[in-house]
Design brief:
112 residues; elongated; mainly alpha; 0% strand; binds heme C
Length: 112
Amino acid sequence: MKKLTALLVLAGCTHVAVAAEVVGNVQNAKAKIEMCIGCHGIPGYKATFPEVYPVPMIGGQSAKYIESALRAYQKGERKHPSMKGIAASLSEQDIADVAAFYAQQTRTADPK
Ligand code: HEC
């Protein structure tokens, strides 16, 4: 009987874990966006890179847009090789976190 109860409790937990929605966490994103900074300029960072190579600005973009773009790279619907590699290395939680982070940025890095 004890075993059965334990199993039921376990099953209950798994269910909750699966049902829980992935919510982006801006704090957790900070360590994850380090590899994005080199290419995607962030406010306070001098973005000289876009002059050499067209890297889109993602700061201030809506979280939904960033998430769907990253998923499109994961699925191969978007073809850019370096972004495909990067997106492939991100978990669902990573995507939610970086999307939340970039969405709360303001577009102050726009070149005049
Ligand atoms: C090696 C350089 C490089 C790195 C590192 C990089 N990106 Fe990109 N990213 C690009 C380029 C170039 C594009 C445009 C690709 C294209 O035309 O599809 C792009 C496109 C994107 C787009 C789509 C933007 C749009 O307007 O459609 C998103 C979102 C994005 N990157 C997020 C990220 C995130 C998040 C990270 C870090 C986890 C990251 N990138 C790291 C170079 C990079």
